Structures are given as C-alpha cells and as structure tokens.
Write the structure tokens for this entry.
Amino acid sequence: MKTGGHLKKLLQPLYPDMIRRRRYLHQHPELSFQEAKTSQWIASELRSMGCEVQEGVGGYGIVATIKGHLPGPVVALRADMDALPIQDEKTCEYASKVPGIMHACGHDGHTAALLAVAEYYQGGKDQLAGERRLLFQPAEELTPGGAEPMMKAGALEGADVIYGVHLWSPLPYGQASTKPGPFMAAADEFTIDITGLGGHGGMPHKTVDAIIVGSAIVQAAQSIVSRNVNPLQPAVVTIGSFQAGSANNVIAERCQLKGTVRTFDAETRAYVHERLKATIEHICGMYGASWEIDYRFGYPPVVNDETEADRFFRTAPELFEGGVVRAEAIMVAEDFSYYLEKLPGCFMFVGAGNAETGASYAHHHPRFDIDERAMIDAASLLVAMAEHYSTEWPSEGLDTL
Ligand code: NI
C-alpha cells in the first residue's frame, strides 16, 4: 500500500462516488438513534463493493471488515452518520429534503470518505497487511452516544489501534490538525431544583426565598473554577438557565438552574462534580431550603495517544498542501473518546472551510457546508495513518528486540 502524495492520486478516482454518496446522505438526514435508513443504505453500498458487513452493531452501527492477504495489525477506522434537528437554509440542489433535520456537522462527509476507504482497501486486498475494521457509528450528537454500544457489541474486539477524523469548517481546506493528549472536553450537564417556602412579598420573614438561594448558588458556583480547581487545569462551569418566580409581590417557592461542566481530565471532572454538590448542600442548609440535583455525565474527554498523535505529525504533512497545525484543545465534546479509553489512537481535524464554496459557516449552523474536496483529504489521512502504523507493526515486538 502506498502512502503520501501517491495515496491522494489513488483515491482521486473515488471522488465522484464520494460526492454522490455525501449528497445523497445530505438530502436524506436522520437524527441520532433513528438512523435506520442511513444504516441500511451504508450496508448496501458496502455490499455492492463486496465487503463483509455486520449490521445492527450496538443499534444502527455497521462494521465492515476487510482482511488482507498479508499478516499485519487490525486497524479500526471510524465515521459517524447522524444529523441534527436544524432546518437546512441552503438553497443548493443537495439541500436536505427532510424538514427540520440536516447534516450540519459534516457526518455525511465522514461516512462518504470512509466508504471510499472501504472501496480502496477492498480493491487492494493482495497487498493489504492485516485487517481494516471500518466502524460506521450512529448517534454521535446525542448522549449517551453510539460509540459505547458499538464497543459493548464487540466492534473493537482484537483491534490494535483506532483513527477518526472530523471535517472542520473553522480550518481552511488543505490543512489538518490535532494535538497529543487532551484534545476535546468532557461535557456533563446538570439540573438543580431548589425548594424554599413561598409567601407574600411583604412578609419575607415567613418565607424561604428560592430566588435568593438560587442566586447564592450561581455566585458560589463561579468560585469552583477560580478557587478550587488547579489553575493549570482547564474547566468551565456554566449556568445557562435560571427559572423562578411569577409575580412582583410573591416570594418564589421554587427555583430551577440548568448548566454544563466542561473539563479535560477525570480527576478535575470528579472534583467539580463534588464541589458543586457541596456548594449546593451548604447554601441550601444555610437558608433552610431543600434541593435535588440531576447530574448527567456526558462523553469523557478525547485524549489522543502521544505516539499516535506523533504519527499524524510525521504522516500528514505530505498530504496537506496547506500544512499541518498543532491544534489547541477545544471545549467541544465527541464520543470518539470512548474508543480512545480502550485503544491507542488519534482523532484528527481535516480542514473543510472555504468561503468561495460557501463553506464558511460554523458547525451546527443552518447554512453549514463543507468544501467537498476535504473528503479526499479525510480518506487519504485515514489510509495514511493505518498504513504507517502497519509498517511499524508489531511495535511492541520491535521494542523488546
Ligand atoms: Ni460532529
């Protein structure tokens, strides 16, 4: 198998199919955990190439297995397939045909790129060393996500390493980026319900004012990051909703706060949770209010393996004319994190932004689009990483020689 510049040339003939598939998916988007037709369609595309396909892996997940004729590692490559509850505002011919649902994050492009990877490997089994396991994953956009169920169903059994890409519109077409270690945040959500004692606005001494209690919690919660968390560990505590009260002269009995916590490591994540609960408990105790918290742990942080991120910086420069960038960590979450908890691997951004082709909107924007050429980049990068890993396999054996 070839790497580098040759690779892009080899994948180029598959570009018309990438466009056809991406545009089909773009017109027929489905929401997370509801990707029945998308999943069926992906399976039939894979079968038409002659791939060995497993359907219904942890929900609507699909695993395509391509076994080479030479000995080598099992390399897993992943694409997600779900869309978002957003009305497509684009006017192009491939705009979404489903009211209120659109591929506003590029997952259609991920799927089309990985289908091209399947076609590429399927046609080159004689030279392929080991196995390539292609994971088409549903439900990335909605916790608890589709990654964990696919793993529980055995999708990564026997795999040595995993790679994934996200087409990224803030990054110009022609560039790619990632970073070693913590790359994307853990995102948790909470709802706090405070119950005081309602009463007359003119007789506060007979009440427990839930608005006063809620306000004190909002204020105190801000000191968790500034005074409890190590300043060298990034963390965010945001309270984005405060609902209480109904009239000028009525003291509110109830107050509901909703928020999110973003962190990059397990220790800080657990600590913020613990401090938030302690803050609520003591403030409510002080005012004589009762409380409940519904704290939902979302995806863990995406932590790239150091060796695999290094492989990206050794492999990707030949593929990207615009250059390769060392990314900053970002506070967005991704369920690729579950795979990286089990296997070494790397999650990478492939530049898909281009104002000239209309691909200048942020992810999850109603006019989001990609520069479609980025799909060739994404497919080439996945293959290049897999083949580079393969040439250094078995790394453990080499270490001990
Ligand atoms: Ni996405």
Notes: The longest strand covers residues 161-172. Residues 186-296 form a domain with the Alpha-Beta Plaits fold (CATH 3.30.70.360). Residues 105, 107, 140, 166 surround nickel (II) ion (CB under 6 Å). The chain has two domains: 4-183+302-392, 186-296.
